[in-house]
Amino acid sequence: MFSVLRDLIRYNIEFAIGVVLVGAIVIFACLSFVSPIDPTAVYTAIPDQPPSAQYLFGTNSRGQDMFWQLTFAFRNTLSFGITVAIVSRVISIAVGLTAGYLGGWPDRVLMFFNDIFVAIPIFPILILFYYVLRTNMNSFTLALIMACFGWPFDARLIRSVALSLRHREFTRQAVFSGMSPLRIMGGEHLPYVMPIIFSTAMANMIWSIGLEVTLAVLGFTNLNIPTVGTTLYWANNHSALLVGTWWWILIPVVILVLMFLGLFLLAVSLNEYIDPRSRLRRMGA
Asked: How many CB atoms neighbour CB 60 within 10 A?
């Protein structure tokens, strides 16, 4: 694993830039643990102050220091995206490896449900869940719901790899040695799909965070939890651009775009690493 990271950082400039961008935003989000303010408190600072030495990112119309407020917002947004990525990866790995290795009727049944989840319109379903669980809707609940819809495309990709692996010689040797299907899938096949899992996790984080921001801006999440989406919701609710508090919208949007760019570069570079020809060409072989 460490040798792979070393080669990616050394030979792939996109991966190095992505690590720097995402790492900087992670460090920024971790500053929330030493924040001197309560992220839910309002009118703790002078409202509508532009960026200055006292208020690095300015203050909003709710009297909140935008620098510290955004540390909480990006911490919650990153935690949300990571939760969705992890849970959906677990589902996609279980479905993809099982369908690809076992084949037959398990494969047909699992892919039948996979195709159903592919066809389901996610956005209206999430809005319906919001109205049903309005009082109990929080970031973790929304992440679990979204993870249940974020696995089918990646499960089919993992299945295609598992289909080729089950005919390899090492798989036949594992079967002849008496290994159970679960041990074969977990010990023999899983390492081969790990690069795919990591690359699709980056793409899944972009998808889930973008969808969460969209829902929050429209008011379909818990607005008391500071996230990037709720920050933009309150900015729009107070007509930030009309009253001249441009930093309330511009700063979180710029940081969000940099985070998306970093995750995209990580996903692209990992996809390139999966292809042996492009990896060797990048390394000058």
From this structure: 24
Query: Tens of pLDDT along 244-263?
Result: 899 999 999 999 999 999 99
Of the ranges 1-5, 23-27, 136-140, 275-279, which is most confident? 23-27
Instruction: Share the mean pLDDT of the chain.
Output: 87
Return d(Cα 146, Cα 84) in angstroms, integer.
7
**Close Cβ partners of 151 (under 8 Å, ≥ 6 residues apart):** 88, 89, 91, 92, 95, 117
Least Cα distance to 71 among 20, 47, 42, 37 occurs for 37
Rg of the chain over CA atoms, in angstroms?
22
Who contacts 257 (Cβ-Cβ below 8 Å, separation ≥6)? none
Q: Which CATH superfamily is domain 42-248 in?
A: MetI-like (1.10.3720.10)
Written as one letter, the residue type at 27 is: I
Residue-wise DSSP of 168-192: SHHHHHHHHTT--HHHIIIIIIHHH
pLDDT at 272 over 80: no
pLDDT band at 230 (very low <50, low <70, confident <90, very high): very high
Residue 189 has a pLDDT of 84
Task: Locate 114 and state its tokens.
Answer: 């996979």
Q: Phi-psi region for residue 178, left (φ > 0), alpha (ψ -120 to 50) or beta? A: left
CB neighbours of 279 closer than 8 A, spacing ≥ 6? 272, 273
Whole-number Å distance between alpha carbons of 114 and 150: 11
